[in-house]
Amino acid sequence: MLSVDEALERLLAGGLGMTEAETVLLTDAVGRVPAVRRLVAAHDVPPFANSAMDGFAMLSADGDAPRRMLGESRAGGPGAPRVERGTAVRIMTGAPLPPGADAVVPLEKAREEENTVLVEAAPALGAHVRAAGHDVPAGTSVVLADAPLSAASIGLLAALGRDSIEVHRRPRVAILSTGDELRPAGATLGAGQIHDANGPALAAAVSESGAEPILLDAAPDDPTVIEERIRDGARGADLLIVSGGVSVGRHDLVRTVIERLGSLEFWRIAVQPGKPLAFGYIGERPVVGLPGNPVSALVTFELFVRPMIRRMMGLSGDGRTRVRARVDEALGKDVARRAYLRVSAAAEGDGYRAVSAGGQASSQLLTLASANALLVVPEGLASTEAGGTYEAILLGPVA
Ligand code: AMP
Ligand code: MG
Predict the structure, then answer these.
(1) Mutation choice for ligand 1 from 226, 293, 366, CB with most ligand atoms inside 8 A
(2) 244 CA distance to ligand 2 middle (Å)
(3) Which one of 73, 104, 189, 237 has the largest count of C-beta atoms within 10 Å of its C-beta?
(4) CATH of the domain at 114
(5) Looking at the structure, do residues 112 and 138 belong to the same domain, yes or no?
(6) Is 317 within a domain?
(7) What are the pLDDT digits (tens) for 95-147?
(8) Spacing, Cα 104 to ligand 2 middle (Å)
């Protein structure tokens, strides 16, 4: 059996191309991955010195002496008169600092009487003044994080004067469910039939990882139909995910079909849930065959496909937060495999505590839906140790 780490290494090593860059408007850029990570600030942000408060702009050298009022400087307004010794200008937050002024006294620390401004105390040089470039000086090399663009990054790009940004095209990921028993969501079930859970689940997981899902119609266990669907999927997509039909049952035809269309390796991975995984190429297109049980399909997607998709978009890792979590129960597992147990993790004291989300069979999707973390229990252990601490991969918000 391959270890999880070896399998991931092989998947990522296998010539995964990055999608090309495309230019999108900032208004469409949230969640997209910047294709250019470093840009140089062409001008100061803010472009001019301005006031951080509503108040009065003046000269610090005048100390606490009364000042004669000259006029007003508004945000977006025309320039204000020069402030000389013994004078002041009424100023609003964000308004340009009048020439000559070097301090602002906030409204609440000053009083206006007739045409005179009286201050409670002498202002310090530079008080409540935002210098030009105090946010980003011109020429700064701004580095965008190895992450999808956030609202703050988009705001920063706008402040720097950009209206668009080059991002990696979202990889198109085709998803094919296979199995004679499958009926689409919403359909009436006949004898022996179940709803296709993996199609919608994997499409959602693809979207969540930042790519564009293409959900193909599920295929029965019929090599001709599977071949047709896989051909279609491979044509329009950067990556193809097939679920079901990859193990060693009599009707597990996916492997045979992919082998006929391209190349395929079949791995047994020391992972629970998940074990069988197929990886290959049809032409240039990578294909991953995931196990059919819904929890196995989603967990192997999480461990293997999500990092592949992120790599194709120019991101590294899986983008998940890992914490250490204490467990107070002995949760059984296969000693030979690394287990990813469905748990509810919650903050407790300085750390986290994890409680089993319930049944851990690979067919029990309910417990994955109610879990917010996967508890990683290493190979070599037959169960968790009550009171032991393990790594937990956070999949959702933690209470
Ligand atoms: P397989 O990998 O095809 O042997 O399927 C293993 C188990 O997963 C069987 O119980 C299948 O019915 C189930 N299964 C396979 N594909 C899906 C799917 N798309 N949705 C829900 N269950 C599935
Ligand atoms: Mg099947």
Answers:
(1) 293
(2) 5
(3) 104
(4) 2.170.190.11
(5) no
(6) no
(7) 999 999 999 999 999 999 999 999 999 999 999 999 999 999 999 999 999 99
(8) 73
Residue with CA nearest ligand 1 atom 5:
292
What's 27's DSSP letter? G
Which ligand has the minimum distance to the alpha carbon of residue 290?
A: 1
Instruction: List helix spans (H) across the chain.
Output: 4-13, 151-159, 198-208, 223-236, 254-261, 294-300, 306-312, 365-370
Containing structural domain, residue 35: 21-45+134-168
Record the pTM.
0.92
Closest CA to 121 of 105, 143, 144, 145: 105
Mutation to probe ligand 1, out of 243, 253, 266 (largest number of atoms < 8 A from CB): 243
Same domain, 25 and 162: yes
**Is 399 part of a structural domain of the chain?**
no
User: Residue 180's domain is classified under what CATH number?
Assistant: 3.40.980.10
Cβ–Cβ < 8 Å for 22, 36: no
